[in-house]
Amino acid sequence: MKLYYKPGACSLAVHIALNEIDADFELEKVDTSAQKTEVGADFSKINPNGYVPALAIDSGEVLSEGAAVLQYVAQQKPEAGLAPEAGTIENTRLQALLNFVSSEFHKSFGPFFSPVPPEGEAREAAVAGVARRMDFIENSLSDRRSFLLGENFSIADAYAFVVASWSGHVGIALDRWPNVTAYLQRIALRPAVIKAMRSEGLLA
Ligand SMILES: N[C@@H](CCC(=O)N[C@@H](CS)C(=O)NCC(=O)O)C(=O)O
After folding, report:
1. Could you tell me the pTM of the whole model?
2. pLDDT digits (tens, 9 = 90+) for 28-45
3. Given CB 3.0 to 4.6 Å as the disulfide criterion, which of 159, 170, 173, 183 pairs with 112?
């Protein structure tokens, strides 16, 4: 397998999941602005949508859309426990969380990553959008569970960890969400996370 990634982007969640299952994979960094990979390949031919993550699997097919790619990775090693078994209510909860992280939480950061970052009232509205989703995660963790689905780390946690970590880069302090802060600290200690962040150049 080969993961096309951009350091610290949502592709980091897939990178973490691949490490969690101890997968055999290669990495290829992408400059999404130039649509070139680090070896000069035309990324628009690899993922016509032009964004990461993209995962080339051994059949030659390229998978895209983070929530789907994460589930593919989890299915490669069910015993790693990154996703509850399909058809169970726990798996439905996972689907809900992946959809929440992808279409609500991730997208709430969109304004900050636009070519013209928001200022003034537009920034306040964008911060409020992130805060609303952060409140949901804060409340989901309020029963002292370790992870979003309970005590088992799942692909939804890998994705939520990456997105929540963008807060610092856009100037949103996490102090008002103590459960989220502790949750991120807990996930940051996982060997799979440290290894992925080191190899993306995000940690020394
Ligand atoms: N719908 C896609 C969106 C992926 C996405 O937003 N990727 C971002 C990085 S987090 C990206 O590559 N954006 C293009 C860019 O940064 O130029 C998914 O869920 O995987």
Report:
1. 0.98
2. 999 999 999 999 999 999
3. 170
